[in-house]
User: Fold this.
Amino acid sequence: MSYAVAVDIGGTFTDLVAYDHATHKVIYAKSPTTYDNLVEGILECFHKAKIQPAEASLVNHGTTLVINSLIQRSGARAALVTSEGFRDILEIARGNRPDPFDLHYQRDEPLIPRELRLEVPERTSSKGEVITPLDLTALEKLAGEIRTLGVESVAIFFVNSYINPAHEEAAAEKLKELLPGVYVTFSTDLTREWYEYERCSTVAANAYVGPQVSTYIRQLDTDLEQQSFVGSLFMMGSNGGLLSAQRACRQPIGLVESGPIGGCIGASAYAEALGFQNLISFDMGGTTAKCALVENGRFSVNSVYYANGYIKGFPIKSAVIDIVEVGSGGGSIAWLDSQKRLHVGPQSAGSTPGPVSYGRGGTEPTVTDANLVLGRLNAGNFLGGEMRLDIGAAQEAITRGIATPLNYTGRDGMIQMADGIISIATVIMAGAIRKISVEHGLDPRDFILFSYGGGGPLHACALAHELSIPTVIIPPEPGNFSASGMLLADARIDTSKTFVGILEDKAAVPAMAEIFGAMEREAATALRAEFGTSSVFFEHHAEMRYRGQRHNIKVPVSGLKNAAAIRAAFERDYKRRYGHADAKATAEFQAVHLSTFARLKQPEIAHLPRPSTKARPMRTRRVYIGNAGGWLEAQIFDRDALEPGFSGTGPAVIEEYGSTTIVWPSDRFEIGELREIRIKCLRE
Amino acid sequence: LKLSRLSFSDQEHVTMKPMSALDSLERAIDPITLEVIRHGIISICDQIDANMTRTAFSPYIYEYKDYAVGFVGVQGELLAQSTGGMPVFVADSVGMAVKDGLEVYRRENLHKGDVIVCNHAAVQGQHLNNTVMYTPVFAGPKGNELIGFFAVNCHWIDVGGSAIGSVSYSSTDIFMEGLQLRSIKIWSKGEPNEEVYRIIENNTRFPLELLGDIEAQLGGCLLGRDLTQAMADKYSPAIFLDALDTILDQCEAATRAKIRALPDGVYQYEAFLDNDGVRNEKIPIKVKVIVAGDEMTVDFSEMSDQVKGCINSGYYGGGRTCVRVAFKYLIATDEPANEGTFRPLKMILPERKLLSAEPTAAMGLYSIPFPTVIDCIIKALEPALPERVTGAHFGTFSSLSFAGKRTDTGAVFKANDSGHGGWGACATHDGAGPFRTMAHGDTRLIPIELQESMYPFRVEEFALRQDSGGPGKWRGGVGFDKQYVLLAPCELWANFDRIGCPPWGVQGGKAAKSGQVLIFKNGKQEAELLYKTEGCPLQAGDRVRMSTAGGGGYGDPHERPVELVQRDVIRGFVSPESARDDYGVVFDDNGKASRRKDKG
Assistant:
């Protein structure tokens, strides 16, 4: 009864990590994701790991269910109830066209079509005064209408509810009473910030996924209970913290980026354990690469997220770790356009058919194929030898698809182009890292590159050299890192509120403290009730700007008692981000954000690696690194056999199940106390 | 300095290569380095773009994205530009300013740390708010090789003149529209020129916002310069410039190939604008497009002459911008905006036309005709590109503003709101929207919750507008209705057009409904429909209802599947009457839809 278990359902595999607090034993299991019944895949993982759900005290669960439902449009038939005159807010959106020259541009269809959007007389002013009382008779009539529409859920959105949510709350209560069995959600239960479209879109999305997610969570809970599980089930929130199952059912939109978050949490936990303040977490999988910043030991959290992207998707006002994603993964396809310009991605061969070398019918060369022909991947030892890679097919595809059309002939030409594919993928991924660092006024050289995922360790040194990052760290089990990270999460609730005030106004700071006080009491009570814990801690942020600006920056204000201290923090962050600050301009508040945490019992990081194995005999292999001298004789190491304190110099290849690390020539690597690989990348 | 159109020609830097050479472009540079530099230079521009949005003070920049970022070659040719932003700027709004600066100062007098601004009507040919700022980029081992200019064009919130914001229909020449800065060094060798700042500060109604924006613009130029220099030095300036040159040639080859695929011919279309806001006379918008081999020429010879009202624009900022924007939409969608992409595109545009006005003409609302000109070029090419063209879009700025004094602070305010409208349908789907016009880009509506907290009005309804989309096999996009009730006395400004010439359909599709503004006093509708008005007085309790136009349809409406017509009726986008009259679809007593056989 002492296992802490984390389960991460990904696109291809369901990963499980179990950790025994008593013996520090750690078990990893992987099983194909079962799309028809996701719970089956989880139970299969328990089976493979040879543990009973009854032995688990805790299951932390991350899932891509919410984002898949939103993108594949497989959610519920939902209705929207709005203030009279405003049912089209959801469809009109903000009227912008982010793709400036697409003559045929369309946004994604609204989640709730017009015939399911209904209006009720009510109106609150921008100051929170009631202009038109909520018409309860009309609402009752509307409930009758909703019953005939055959919907599974109802979203409620009223204009200006951010300043006074009374009408939304009353309407929700009434509709719950009148519509038993229907999932009812209202906008101010999800966010208390202004901007009607964003709030309306958020509640529509919550209604859209609500029935499906709450059914899934309840089923998982029931199935686990039937297997004698008596521990707690927690869900991995996009904010990087755990949510109680009950909250996840009420606010499923908080799980929108539940999948990739585990790795970020793991990265910040390692940063803390290793004593680093700043790192860039870099996760490269089959179709995309994702990166996020950990600064002063914390990852940054955005307050708006675009489901299916900014170009065509819709906003969700929910705390989501700031992750920048680019379409560059192992399966990304290299191709030539009509002018023979070489591109890599964003189209991906994914896992089916996958790269040409997988031999599953893929015909276009991919990043993985390029890595293979350059000797970086071991054709005979991929996934621990479970899968053989066809190097001849990869060579042929690169020759035919890229080298020959560009007049690069022979084996050398093919190799040069394979290396070129890697270079372009590197530039694209480096662009993502620049986006989250340089654009925020941060210098990537001040960060450590923390790299995981199947492809992260293969490309980490190239990225470090491209960005002049001096240190790379590869954690243990990089292929399962997202699941491991979920074991290390705190319980967390994020709440926010629009708060408009001038910093220099004497009443502003006390008013903010009062709002934070009320928010703290509410969140702490909720967290204590949901997690049965007594100790909670808080982080406070204020969204601020110079008066007249529209874009806010989030300033940490925990412990800052007066306007002068807040002003100093604001100017420090502003200057860092934009390179200049204005000592004369008036500063103003726009919103406050409170993060409330409770620390749960967590594994000791030092015990997370697999038990070590015996080293195989010394061997070498020829590896091509174009930017570092071409073909090189590299030493090959088995990662599981490397003990802390071991060190060496590149060129080297470190192989393990699910991943391969490349160390560039003259870069030094050593195995750290947590069995992480540390690579010192020398500046050319 | 003479106040005429500048002497250099559009084609000055174009060294035409014979087709055979372009087809088998011999590249001095390897394809990998080329791609790495291609990604790199655009990502620098995009990075500066993102910083502009975040640091600017005025809503023109952070909300409307009324700016552009570009890297310009040593002769003023556009080499790379940010990917987002306003289409009217993407056509190259920065190169002209650099060319003028080179003529005014000469190259040897441009030093590291110099920063130059230009908003002159003879140079850019747009309203004086659009001000280009740029700085030379030097690279190489000694840091003394000029490799180009990093430039940011942005809408200055107010540059003086007769009206708030420097834009008004009452202006009839450029001098009523504010301060002109013709290639002035605002920084010299790394030091600010305080006199220039003082001139600017004392010629604007909003010095705080404007100086804040200038800071953001300056920061963008300097950071862009440093990043570009670092990139050039990483590969050597020669390789870097060679790569940019190759990129231009590839873009040229790509667009030539696209044009070659079109049937040769002369294509034309004529539409009109209702008036210029000053004189009640129609303004003909007539375009001719000549496709010959791998070149396309847009001939504006029969375009309206320049007008008294302030909707004129100059040769480059007007005519050339329109043809380039239309070309991007129709032909070069996937190619970046640079000199190479536009090489196969020519223009015939005599002097003193609406789109080639004299620099003394009023230009405050210079871009008003653009959406209609672009629509006309698209419509003209309908026979050549039947699968690609779309019905006309609502095509007018349909903007609405309330001006007055705040009840709380007494401060002057002007609340600008924009009437987004429907876009045309295409061969594969219904028209989209409501969006802003083809001249606009990623421009967002201002949230009602924000408006109500700042201005003395409340919005009573904000809804999609029934029957506004043009009927067709694919229906045009719909416009919207927005109704305001005033809480304090205000003045109303409106600017609607395309009433007489509503957005047309293509391939048998029908026209959309035009926009309008209604005023209600004491619950009664005023008789007069408003299209263009400035300073119309309103009292507390008065109501204003703005309705925007839809987009034109695509294909015969009688070919629209009955299920889609029925769905539109259920959703309220189409009324049962329009279903019957326009689509020939009727409903029986049980609500079952069927198509009338007699078509009418």
User: Anything to note?
Assistant: Chain B has 13 helices and 22 strands. Chain B touches chain A through 79 residues (CB under 8 Å). Residues 30 and 190 of chain B are 37 Å apart (CA to CA). Confidence is low (pLDDT under 50) at residues 1-25 of chain B.
